[in-house]
Amino acid sequence: MQNIAALAQGPPLTAHEALSGVFGSVSLASWIFLLVPQLIENYKQSSAEGISLAFLTVWFIGDITNLAGAIWAGLVPTVIALAVYFCFADLILIAQCVYYNMKNARKSRKESTRTIDSVEQPLLGRRDSSNLGLPGSHRRRSSAISTRRRASSLPSLVEEEEGGREWVKNTLSILGVCVVGAAGWAIAWRTGVWVPQPDDDDTAGTDMALGAQILGYASAICYLGARIPQIIKNQKDRSCEGLSLLFFMLSLLGNATYGAGILFHSVEKEYFLTNLPWLIGSLGTMVEDVTIFIQFRVFGNGEHSSAVAA
């Protein structure tokens, strides 16, 4: 979620201004739906081990500074309301992750206690027929191993098919968000909620309080650094299991359309410099999102390797 001060929306509608409005609206739609896929993924897995709490914490700090900057700068109530929404959404995801981490930690401790108790039990009754040398037992065991080897190729085929369906579903979700964002801008324009902002009004950005600008830079730095713990965690675990790919696809879409919305509005020096910290934050997080996409491609979710090893 990038600082949305520059998207605060004046004069005839030009093609560039219309594109700026559409891109800005798509960006907002991306941020609104952003955390939903990861919330669903955590719920399905009953676990939040895949996502880094440091990532979410730094991101939350970025949203807090974004909200503080919006209030300090006296931005329109809609912008402030969205910033508040972002903070609440962060808190919901963080609370869910903490809940699952605590729940699974307790479950793990109970299982380890049971394991210790079972180890102390007599070893009688643990032998199987393969150790008794019964006629045909070796033949049956060899047959079972060969059957298991033949079946080991099935999980990879199923996984590839499911992966293909997942990409199709994610692509359709991205297209849906784009349609919702574009439709939202069209409705806002037709009803007069959104009006074009003239280029000569760009001096408004330079009148922003110094403290609000500092908070803008702080939020950009937080957004830029938030993904680093997640990238490190993925590399360390060599897996992206538990992460929602759609979550990062929406993030990439939100950052790309956010930057496009700013640049299509104006490339005048003063306007560009006013929005530079958020442009840098958007560009940097896009690079980091691409890095995570590569990790998804290289590591997958860890299911394939475990299936083959079974």
UniProtKB/TrEMBL annotation:
One of its GO terms (biological process) is vacuolar transmembrane transport. It holds the Pfam family PQ-loop. Keywords: Membrane, Transmembrane, Transmembrane helix. It catalyses: L-histidine(out) + L-arginine(in) = L-histidine(in) + L-arginine(out). Residues 137-148 have a biased composition (Basic residues). GO terms for cellular component: lytic vacuole membrane. It is found in: Membrane. It is a multi-pass membrane protein. Gene3D superfamilies: 1.20.1280.290. Its main location: membrane. InterPro entries: LAAT-1 (IPR051415), PQ-loop_rpt (IPR006603). GO terms for molecular function: basic amino acid transmembrane transporter activity. Residues 126-148 are annotated as: Disordered. The chain crosses the membrane at residues 18-40, 52-73, 79-100, 171-188, 208-226, 246-264. Belongs to the laat-1 family. PANTHER family: SEVEN TRANSMEMBRANE PROTEIN 1, SEVEN TRANSMEMBRANE PROTEIN 1-RELATED. This is Vacuolar membrane PQ loop repeat protein. The lineage of its organism: Eukaryota, Fungi, Dikarya, Ascomycota, Pezizomycotina.
